[in-house]
Sequence to fold (180 residues):
Amino acid sequence: MTDVNGLTELHLSADSAEQMRAIATEVIAPHLRAGDLLILSGDLGAGKTTFTQGLGDALGVRGPVASPTFIIARTHPSEVGGPALIHVDAYRLTSLAELDDLDLDTTLDDSVTVVEWGEGKAEALAVDRLHVRIDRERGGELDMANPEGGRREVSILAHGPRWVNVDFAADTSSSDGDLG
Ligand SMILES: Nc1ncnc2c1ncn2[C@@H]1O[C@H](COP(=O)(O)OP(=O)(O)O)[C@@H](O)[C@H]1O
Ligand SMILES: [Mg+2]
Fold:
């Protein structure tokens, strides 16, 4: 965890989809509460939906969490009396300022909202937000038997007063930030 001009940044890596889900489940989800907003960025196949599946598991929402590509947003109600998960795909949108107008069966204030492809679009929704950026490791060897596989670098940037004094790093199991 580093703190640069009040901007909190955490860098982790995930060697598998399971580890990507574990970052969501173990590092991020324990700190989430109703009203929180996460913006996910990364190329197609980076692992944004995989990350969101980990959040859904940890929040105890009704699944399955899947790519919401053909709809704008899907609401997953809680099965444990907690906040719902609103899973948004902003790929085709230019702005999310109107997200609150969609018929989501719940409000952003009562939910944890995750926006895939939300960079540059969802910031207007809230001063407080977590930006999760997922990058495939560059220069890594492509495994022809498993072309989707490989290590991902996960950068978590916390914006806004909501996240001051929230120490995500306290949950990581090893000092180099690698959950593996
Ligand atoms: N280290 C990893 N982290 C995340 N996903 C991985 C990893 N290695 C392989 N995968 C696979 O890559 C794919 C990521 O797809 P998905 O989560 O839908 O990406 P996105 O939503 O960013 O388009 C999944 O099939 C997942 O199993
Ligand atoms: Mg996706």
Residues 167 and 180 are 20 Å apart (CA to CA). Residues 14-17, 20, 42, 44-50, 67, 116, 148-152 surround adenosine-5'-diphosphate (ligand 1) (CB under 6 Å). The first strand starts at residue 2 and ends at 4.
